[in-house]
Amino acid sequence: MNLGASNDSPSRRQVVLFLVLSFAFAWVIAGAFSLLGGRWNTPAAVPVGVVVMFTPLAATLIVQKLIRRRPLRELGLSFRLNWWWLAAWLGPPAAAFATIGVSLLLPVVEYAPGMEGMFERFATMMSPEQMAAMKDSIPNLPAHPIWLTLGQALVAGLTVNALAGFGEEVGWRGFLYRGLAPLGFWRSSLLTGFIWGIWHAPLILQGHNYPDHPVAGVAMMTAWCVLLGPPFAFIRARTGSVIAASVFHGVLNASAGIALMVVRGGSDLIVGLTGLAGFIVLAAVNLALVFTVRRGRPLKDAPVPG
């Protein structure tokens, strides 16, 4: 089936141009940061990561507005609410807590309510003074940090994180979603996930998500994004909105740390949402989607029936 078969869908060439621009912008920015001596997992990397998240938006604006001369609203810029928005908001934290449960089933992982495992992971990123200050502040908190993190994630996922997530989602679940729609739900969402994962490669090689295994992390991140592709596409299809996908993305980023807060042991390839434990949770989600999405159903902007 040809891509861009309808008049309002991107053509094959336009899809390729969007991908070239998205990758070029992101990889040049990430590469420049590294060549200038920047180090990932430091405060200086935060604004760089945010800018990189907006590169798919930049590519979308060029192709959709300047070349296709089509409105952005056709990419799913809708705030029309339904119950699937709630799934976009609460689904990522549920996955994070499920990942904790799966992690504790692994022989190399143990329950650590005192967050000893988290402190060990931060040891290489913080000074001894900063580490001591963080430990000393915990007894004065009104609740366990995991619950405070959950609350912050739910708020940030609807606001600042959703805005950053929109920078990516208007490209992946907006422009590319429409461009690959004729392939059907599974092929288009899995292919989008693969592309999305490879797009992260320069950041992963610098230590993002897999600081102890940056090379193997590229393959892990790609596999993780492939597993995330169908849930993201499902939320996009059920809500008819790329904004809902942005909320999903924003809460996912904000709540990912929950999966690491009370477990100890295992490497960054094993624990956490981006590790083996998270893969198992996402595989279960995809299995549930197999029984929900009709095989081969094309993606649409309107919510799809069950």
From TrEMBL:
The keyword Magnesium does not apply. InterPro entries: MmRce1-like, Rce1/LyrA-like_dom. The keyword Hydrolase applies. GO terms for molecular function: endopeptidase activity; metallopeptidase activity. One of its GO terms (biological process) is CAAX-box protein maturation. Residues 153-254 form the CAAX prenyl protease 2/Lysostaphin resistance protein A-like domain. It comes from the Bacteria. Keywords: Hydrolase, Membrane, Metalloprotease, Protease, Transmembrane, Transmembrane helix. Pfam families: Rce1-like. The chain crosses the membrane at residues 15-38, 44-63, 83-109, 179-199, 215-235, 242-263, 269-291. PANTHER family: PROTEASE (PTHR35797:SF1), PROTEASE-RELATED (PTHR35797). This is CPBP family intramembrane metalloprotease. It comes from candidate division WOR-3 bacterium.
